Description:
The chain is 30% helix and 25% strand.
Amino acid sequence: LAKFGLSGALPGLVDVRSFAGLSWRRIRAFGRNRYCALCGSHLRTFLPHGNPIRLHSVCPVCQSRERHRLAWLFMSECVFVDDRPCKVLHVAPEPSVAQRMRKLEQVDYVCGDIRATDGIRMDVHELPFKDQSFDFVYCSHVLNMVRDDVQALRELKRVLRTDGMALVQVPLSSGEKTIESESGWDDHDRIAAFGDPHIRRSHGKDAVTRFEQSGLRVERIDFAARHDAASFNRLGLLSEDLLICRWPEEVAR
Length: 253
Ligand SMILES: [Zn+2]
């Protein structure tokens, strides 16, 4: 169709195709053992992923991983709890979560990243938004990759309404201190230290005090632990603490 210049004229056809693809993936993956809360699919199993490999990681229908489903559970139980309008900023959007949030009628959804793969082109160190524009910000596995994680959080604070909330996820190590890549390190050094050339730091137990340098109040919660073992497995979660960031109480009041 694109060859004949017709794809733009027939957006409905594309929708029908993607709907048919989704339905087919649902039928093929159907089972009673697992449930993906993000796309609402009943599944035989989640698929293996990662290095080291995790056996029950990827949803075969929406491609979400454990941390996306955990974040969505938090959002559905603690953020999108009523029909109140909610302006959302999703930094470096994960497709499965983006798709789910866009479906919520009360959500005015904005997303973007440095490459504008989905949404607008934006640098998290200097966001192109006015002060206090958003009720909710979701930023997952970004602050371990950016040049300055505290400056990025200062920006998230600036664009967050004083009664708003930012949900931040970073891989949290059991080490006491955050380990930073050193000046002069190249991709090989970062692969050796962090297993990925794009990662610039590994956050340790000091993540909360480090992130509070942004002026936000940070609460670290083990949200997955609020679900019993059977639900934990069925929903395909992982034990990664969530960082809930808000303005200081005296301002938020
Ligand atoms: Zn799914």
